[in-house]
Amino acid sequence: MVLQSFMKNSLIFSLLVFLFSCNTKTNIVLDEVVDQVIVDEVIKAPTEYLYGINLDSFSYITQKIKWGQSFSDILSRNGVSNKDIFDASLLSRGVFNLKKIKKGNDYTLFFEKETNRLSHFIYESSNYDYLICSFYPEISFKKVDKNISYVERQISGTIESSLYISFSNNNFPVDLVNLIVDVFAWQIDFFRITPGDTYNIIYTEEVIDGEVVGVKDIKAARFTHNKKPFFAFSYDQGLGNDFFDDQGKSLRKTFLRSPLKFYRISSKYQKKRFHPVLKRYRDHLGTDYAAPRGTSIFSVADGKVIEARYTRNNGYYVKIKHNNIFSTQYLHMSRRKVKVGQYVKQGDVIGWVGMTGFTSGPHVCYRFWKNGRQVDPLKQKLPEAKPISDSLKRKYLTYMAPIKDKLDSMKSNLNFDEKTNNSNP
Q1: pLDDT reported for residue 252
Q2: DSSP H or E segment with residue 33
Q3: How far is CA 289 from CA 251, 282, 353, in A?
Q4: Distance between CA atoms of 91 and 139, rounded to whole angstroms?
């Protein structure tokens, strides 16, 4: 009996030891599996790339171009031979002018981790592209366009003093200021904005790597000036996009209002004006637009350059024949961009504001010729561009209607009266 009880207890004890041993081994196996999973996760970590270059094999530094730095200077200081620099410079021709590398732009140098030799030079030439010069396994030079995505945005605002200040205060893209001024150039004088004027704009912004880099275009806009609404809708009737109002009339004239985007009229067309340099009265048969030196001067209409030269009185100037009736002339340029015989389109840059010739300050003297006689450009009734064609009128109105409804329903972030009231204690 005692023997049976002992054997029974021994059997039970052995069974417990076996079960405990199995459980311990199971835990050990599980720990090994967990460790293996962790190791596998480390091994499968994603490889990092910068400008398409695998960072597993390269180290890199990013710096800004300093004053006086050049492509060859940067490379030679980082161990690239003169021959390789020369060969790379030859390959750059037709891709990018290395003399136009700008102070403040970023550049990145990639070095092989094993040898520490320079393998790639990257230069951020603009928001939209970059240059990549590779030295191994062979020298190459190319420009790479960045991937751009487009996002439609809409903004509204109320003006207290100027359009630019309104945009700046509301953190709206200031690139839009020039675009909206161009759109309504003939409908609104932006130097005579009334406090309380409002704007509603639908536009397309450009995004690269999650960062907004610019404005592509304006889709539609409503600008209320002196309580009168003006509309603009971008539409292509087969000749490229242009802007039309809610009735299908073109917002563009065959001539721009002025040869500058932003300006101050310092002297109008007038008889017997006292000349500030010659110190005597004489006819002033042009309109002077004061602007900083280097401001771009635009051709006000399509035409052919018939004069581009220098004279003692006019300085550097350009004259353009637009048709058998109209010609325009632009005086006192710092530099000209066009040559005689060249055809230009409306809005093309033809030179830059300067103060060459008889002048007391930087400006462009804009002269307007009609049938061979100089006239006041601000008093001319100029022909309008073509409206929406009859064949496309119904299609245009159908396209425009819902966009107009959206513009009408947009509210400015805070109207002028509310801002005025809120500013009072």
Answers
A1: 83
A2: helix 2-43
A3: 23, 19, 9
A4: 8
